[in-house]
C-alpha cells in the first residue's frame, strides 16, 4: 500500500468556530482501495474534518490534495462532482420525496429538460438491488425505517461514481444483519478501488472491516495506524488519552439487592398501557432506585413505550399510577408534574433548541415548569449551569455559545443536564449513548448508577445489550411492538439469553400477557 | 492595529450593522439633496424638523412591528394587523363622534378602552385559531385581514367618520416635553414589551417555541398558551397604532387606515434580523427596521420622486438592504472581490453607533 500514491492528502488542516478550536493542524492520508477508520471521542474533530473535506466548512489553514491536485470545495455538490461522496451521521435526505427522487435529486435523467421518470425508477431499483434492498422506489422515503433510509443514502453516494466515499456513523441506526449487509457492500467497493473513510463508535466494526485507523483527540492528530498493529485497548487509550477502568468497576456496583426494591411501593405502574398502531398494551412497574432496561431490536417499540410513559404520545388504552395513586400521563406537562423526565433519542429534533445557548437549553424544562412569569434569577441559572457543565464535563465549558456548535456527545450531556436540574424521580433515557464515544459513554453509564443509588428510578433504553445488562436491575424485552417478557437481571441472565428472547419471543419464566 | 481590525470585524458582523449603515446612508443622501434636512428648530416650545417627523410617523409602524416580532419569533405571522388598526381606530372615532362634547377627556378614554378591548378580542380570535384549532398562522390571520376591513366598514357604516376632538387628536399629533406624544407612546410600549419579554422568561420561551416546537413541547412548555399570548400582544400593539393613524387625520376610514402596514411591519422585523422561520428575535432590530422604512418613505416624498415610481424605488432599496445583510450574499461578493471596497473611516465608525 505504501508503494501507491494516496488518493487524498490533507495537510495541516485547522478550523475554528466561535469559542471552539475544532481542528488544529491535522494531517490525514487516504489510499485507493482501503477502508480507513477515523476514530476519536465526541468533539475530537472527526465530523469537522469531514465537513472541511467536503466543503461544508471552509478551513482556516492547510491544504487538501485529491489525486495529486490541490482542491478546495465550496460545497458537497462540488465535492461529489469531483468524486467525494458523503453519507452523514444523521440521514439528510428529503422524507417527503420518493426513494427514487432522493437518489437522483439534482441529477435526474432528462430528455429536453423533462425528467424520464420510468428510467429513474428503474435505475433506482437496480441500484438498491445491488444492496439487496427490494423496496418500492416510488414510495415516499419517510414511510421507510431509518435503516432503509440510511441504505438509500448510501446507494445515492455510491451512484455518484465516487473515488472517495465517506460514511459518517452509518451504522448507528442499523441492526446486526443490516451492518453485515453494509460491510459486504463496503468490501465490494474497496475491491473496485474506492477509498472509504469510515467513522463509527463501534470498535468491533472497526476491527471487522478497517484496514487502517487514524485517531484524533481534541482537534489534534494522535496518529495513523494499520488496524492489525493496534490492539483495541491501545486504540481506546489513544482516543481518550487515559487508562480506562471505569467500565469494569461499574459491573460490580450495579448488582444490588433486588428483593428490597421489589418490596417497596412502585414509583410508576403502567397497566395494559397501549396505543393503536404504536405499541401493544403492556404492563411495567418501576421502583425508586431501580434501573429498568428496555431491550429489543430497532423498531421493536422501545421508544414508543417511553413516549407513552412520558405522555409524548397519548395512550388510548390502559392506566398508569404514580406512588400507587392513579395518575393520567396525558401529556408531557402532566408527566413532568409527576417528576418524570425524558431524554429523547433524537437530540436535534426532539431535544435541544439549536440556536439557544447551552445555558438556556439547560434551564428550559425548569423554567417551563415555573411558568414564564417567574424567571429563574440569573445568578441561580449560572450556579446550576456551572455545576452541571463541570459535573458532566460539557465541552467547551462556555455556557453562552449556541448548543448547535457542540458535538453530539456534549449535546447529549446538555439534554441530561436539563432534566437533572429538575430533580426528577424517574428519568427515561432513550439511547443516551448512541453516537457517543467510549469515554462519554462510560461517564453516562456511571451517572446512571449514581443516580439510581441516590434513589432515582431510571428507564434505560439502548440497542447495545451489553450496556443494558451492565446497568439494569430488570430487563424488559420488546419484540414486534410488544413487551414480551421481563427478566430479573441476576447471574442467570446474559447477552445470549436476552438475544434468544428477542429472537424467539419466547421466555423461560413467568409469562406476561 | 490588529485589535482595532478585530473590533471592526466584530462590529460589521453584528446583525444590525448593515441596516444601521443603510439608515445613515439615507440620512446623508437626504442632507446632500436638501442641506437643511438635519436641522431641528424650536418653535412655540415644540421641536420641528424632518428627523422629528420621521420619528413621529414611524411610531405606528414601530408599534405594529413590536407585536409582529413576537409573532414571527414563534414561527408564525400576523397579516391582520392592518385591519386591526382600522377597527380600533373606527370604534374609537365612532364612540367620540357620539359624544355631546367631543373634547371631554372621559369620553376619549372610554373610546381608547373600547379600541383596546376590541383588539384584545380579535387578538384572542387569531390566537385561538392558531393555537387551539391549529390553523396555519398565515391562513388564520388572513381571515381577519380580509374580514377585518369589512368589520371596520360595518362600524363606520361605510362612511368616513370625522371627529373634532383635541384630546384624541393629540395621540397622533400632540406634543409632550417638546416632542410629539406619539414618540413617547411608541417608546413606552417598546420598553414595556422589552420588559415583559426580557425581564421575565417569556422571551426565551418564545424563542424556544419558534426554534424547535417539538423539543419545547417535550420540555414541558405550554406552547399553545405562548402562541395565543403573542397574537393578543400583536393585536393590542396594532390597536394602539390604529389610534395614532386615525388621530393623525382626525377621521376613521375603514378602507385606508393602516393599509399595507402589515407588510411594512414584516419587513421591519426581517430587516431587524429576526428570522421568518422563528427563534431568536431582536426588538431593537425591529425598531431600527421601522425607522429605516419610514426614512425611506420620507425620502421618497422629499426628493419629489414621482408617485408612480416611488413604490419601485422603495422596493429596490429594501432588496439591497436585505441582500447586503445576508451572510451568503456577502460571502459571494467578498470571494469575487477579495479587496475591501473602501477602507472604513473614523467618521463611519462613530456614525454607525448612533442609531444602535
Automatic annotation (TrEMBL), chain A:
InterPro entries in the record: AAA+_ATPase, ABC_carbohydrate_import_ATPase, ABC_transporter-like_ATP-bd, ABC_transporter-like_CS, P-loop_NTPase
Membrane topology category: Peripheral membrane protein
Recorded GO MF terms: ATP binding; ATP hydrolysis activity
Keyword Cell cycle: no
Keyword Zinc-finger: no
ABC transporter domain mapped to chain residues: 8-243, 261-505
Alphabetically ordered keywords of this record: ATP-binding, Cell membrane, Membrane, Nucleotide-binding, Repeat, Translocase, Transport
Entries under Pfam families matching the protein: ABC_tran
Gene3D superfamilies: P-loop containing nucleotide triphosphate hydrolases (3.40.50.300)
Subcellular location: Cell membrane
GO CC, one annotated term: plasma membrane
PANTHER family per UniProt: CARBOHYDRATE TRANSPORT ATP-BINDING PROTEIN MG119-RELATED (PTHR43790), GALACTOFURANOSE TRANSPORTER ATP-BINDING PROTEIN YTFR (PTHR43790:SF9)
Protein name: Sugar ABC transporter ATP-binding protein
Source organism phylogeny: Bacteria, Bacillati, Actinomycetota, Actinomycetes, Micromonosporales
UniProtKB/TrEMBL annotation, chain B:
Protein name listed in UniProt: Sugar ABC transporter permease
Membrane topology designation: Multi-pass membrane protein
InterPro entries: ABC_transp_permease (IPR001851)
Keyword tags: Cell membrane, Membrane, Transmembrane, Transmembrane helix
Cellular-component GO terms for this entry: plasma membrane
Localization per record: Cell membrane
Lineage: Bacteria, Bacillati, Actinomycetota, Actinomycetes, Micromonosporales
Entry's transmembrane regions: 16-33, 54-73, 104-125, 131-152, 173-195, 226-245, 257-278, 285-305, 311-329
Location (main, coarse): membrane
Amino acid at each position: 500500500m505504501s508503494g501507491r500514491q494516496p488518493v487524498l492528502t490533507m495537510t495541516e488542516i485547522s478550523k475554528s468556530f466561535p469559542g471552539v478550536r475544532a481542528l488544529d493542524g491535522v494531517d490525514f492520508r487516504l489510499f485507493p482501495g482501503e477502508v480507513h477508520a477515523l476514530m476519536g471521542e465526541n468533539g475530537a474533530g472527526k465530523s469537522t474534518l469531514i465537513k472541511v473535506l467536503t466543503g461544508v466548512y471552509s478551513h482556516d489553514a492547510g491544504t487538501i490534495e485529491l489525486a495529486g491536485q490541490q482542491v478546495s470545495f465550496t460545497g458537497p455538490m462540488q465535492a461529489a462532482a469531483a468524486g467525494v461522496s458523503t453519507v452523514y451521521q444523521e440521514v439528510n435526505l428529503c422524507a417527503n420525496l420518493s426513494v427514487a427522487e432522493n437518489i437522483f435529486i439534482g441529477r435526474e435523467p432528462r430528455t429536453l429538460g423533462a425528467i424520464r421518470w420510468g428510467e429513474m425508477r428503474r435505475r433506482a431499483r437496480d441500484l438498491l438491488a445491488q444492496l439487496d434492498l427490494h423496496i418500492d422506489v416510488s414510495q415516499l422515503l419517510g414511510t421507510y425505517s431509518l435503516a432503509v433510509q440510511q441504505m438509500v443514502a448510501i446507494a445515492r453516494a455510491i451512484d455518484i461514481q465516487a473515488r472517495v466515499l465517506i460514511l459518517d456513523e452509518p451504522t448507528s441506526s442499523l441492526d446486526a444483519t443490516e451492518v453485515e449487509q453494509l460491510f459486504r457492500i463496503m468490501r465490494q467497493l474497496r475491491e473496485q478501488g474506492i477509498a472509504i473513510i469510515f467513522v463509527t463508535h463501534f470498535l468491533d466494526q472497526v476491527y471487522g472491516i478497517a484496514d487502517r485507523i487514524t485517531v484524533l483527540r481534541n482537534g489534534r492528530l494522535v496518529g495513523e495506524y494499520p488496524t492489525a498493529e493496534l490492539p483495541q485497548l491501545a486504540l481506546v487509550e489513544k482516543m481518550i488519552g487515559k487508562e480506562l477502568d471505569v467500565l469494569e468497576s461499574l459491573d460490580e456496583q450495579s448488582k444490588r439487592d433486588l428483593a428490597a426494591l421489589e418490596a417497596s411501593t412502585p414509583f410508576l405502574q403502567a397497566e395494559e398501557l397501549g396505543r393503536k398502531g404504536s405499541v401493544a398494551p403492556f404492563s411495567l412497574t418501576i421502583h425508586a432506585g431501580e434501573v429498568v432496561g428496555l431491550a429489543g431490536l430497532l423498531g421493536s417499540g422501545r421508544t414508543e413505550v417511553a413516549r407513552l410513559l412520558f405522555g409524548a404520545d397519548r395512550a388510548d388504552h390502559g392506566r398508569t399510577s404514580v406512588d400507587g395513586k392513579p395518575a393520567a400521563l396525558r401529556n408531557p406537562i402532566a408527566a413532568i408534574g409527576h417528576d418524570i423526565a425524558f431524554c429523547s433519542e433524537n437530540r436535534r429534533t426532539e431535544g435541544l433548541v439549536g440556536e439557544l445557548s447551552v445555558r438556556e437549553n439547560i434551564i428550559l424544562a425548569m423554567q417551563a415548569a415555573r411558568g414564564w412569569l417567574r424567571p429563574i434569577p440569573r445568578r441561580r441559572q449560572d450556579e446550576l449551569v456551572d455545576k452541571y457543565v463541570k459535573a458532566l464535563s460539557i465541552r467547551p465549558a462556555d455556557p453562552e455559545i449556541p448548543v448547535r456548535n457542540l458535538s453530539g456527545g456534549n449535546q447529549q450531556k446538555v439534554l441530561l443536564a436539563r432534566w437533572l436540574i429538575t430533580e426528577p424521580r424517574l428519568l427515561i433515557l432513550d439511547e443516551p449513548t448512541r453516537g457517543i464515544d467510549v469515554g462519554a459513554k462510560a461517564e453516562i453509564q456511571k451517572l446512571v448508577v449514581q443516580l439510581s443509588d441516590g434513589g432515582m428510578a431510571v428507564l434505560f433504553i439502548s440497542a447495545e445489550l451489553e450496556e443494558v445488562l451492565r446497568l439494569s436491575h430488570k430487563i424488559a424485552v420488546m419484540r414486534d411492538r410488544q413487551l414480551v417478557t421481563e427478566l430479573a437481571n441476576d447471574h442467570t441472565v446474559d447477552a445470549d439469553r436476552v438475544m434468544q428472547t428477542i429472537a424467539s419471543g419466547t421466555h423461560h419464566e413467568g409469562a406476561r400477557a | 492595529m490588529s485589535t482595532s481590525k478585530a473590533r471592526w470585524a466584530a462590529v460589521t458582523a453584528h446583525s444590525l450593522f448593515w441596516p444601521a449603515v443603510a439608515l445613515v446612508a439615507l440620512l446623508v443622501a437626504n442632507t446632500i439633496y436638501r442641506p437643511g434636512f438635519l436641522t431641528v428648530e424650536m418653535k412655540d416650545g415644540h421641536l420641528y424638523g424632518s428627523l422629528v417627523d420621521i420619528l413621529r410617523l414611524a411610531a405606528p409602524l414601530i408599534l405594529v412591528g413590536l407585536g409582529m416580532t413576537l409573532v414571527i419569533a414563534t414561527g408564525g405571522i400576523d397579516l391582520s394587523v392592518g385591519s386591526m388598526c382600522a377597527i380600533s381606530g373606527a370604534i374609537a372615532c365612532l364612540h367620540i363622534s357620539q359624544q355631546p362634547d367631543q373634547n371631554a377627556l372621559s369620553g376619549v378614554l372610554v373610546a381608547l378602552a373600547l379600541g383596546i378591548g376590541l383588539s384584545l378580542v380579535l387578538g384572542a380570535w387569531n390566537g385561538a385559531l392558531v393555537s387551539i384549532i391549529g390553523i396555519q398562522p398565515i391562513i388564520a390571520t388572513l381571515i381577519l385581514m380580509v374580514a377585518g376591513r369589512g368589520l371596520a366598514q360595518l362600524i363606520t357604516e361605510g362612511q368616513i367618520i370625522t371627529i373634532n376632538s383635541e384630546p384624541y387628536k393629540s395621540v397622533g399629533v400632540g406634543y409632550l416635553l417638546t416632542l410629539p406624544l406619539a414618540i413617547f407612546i411608541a417608546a413606552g410600549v417598546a420598553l414595556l414589551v422589552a420588559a415583559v419579554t426580557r425581564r421575565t422568561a417569556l422571551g426565551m420561551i418564545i424563542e424556544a417555541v419558534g426554534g424547535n416546537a417539538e423539543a419545547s413541547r417535550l420540555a414541558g412548555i405550554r406552547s399553545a398558551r405562548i402562541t395565543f399570548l403573542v397574537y393578543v400582544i400583536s393585536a393590542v400593539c396594532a390597536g394602539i397604532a390604529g389610534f395614532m393613524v386615525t388621530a393623525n387625520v382626525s377621521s376613521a376610514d375603514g378602507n385606508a387606515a393602516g393599509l399595507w402596514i402589515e407588510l411594512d411591519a414584516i419587513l421591519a422585523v426581517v430587516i431587524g434580523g429576526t428570522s421568518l422561520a422563528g427563534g431568536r428575535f431582536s426588538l431593537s432590530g425591529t425598531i431600527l427596521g421601522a425607522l429605516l422604512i419610514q426614512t425611506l418613505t420620507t425620502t421618497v416624498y422629499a426628493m419629489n420622486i414621482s408617485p408612480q415610481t416611488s413604490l419601485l424605488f422603495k422596493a429596490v432599496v429594501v432588496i439591497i438592504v436585505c441582500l447586503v445583510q445576508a451572510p451568503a450574499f456577502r460571502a459571494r461578493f467578498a470571494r469575487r472581490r477579495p479587496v475591501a471596497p473602501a477602507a472604513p473611516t473614523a467618521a463611519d465608525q462613530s456614525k454607525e453607533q448612533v442609531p444602535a
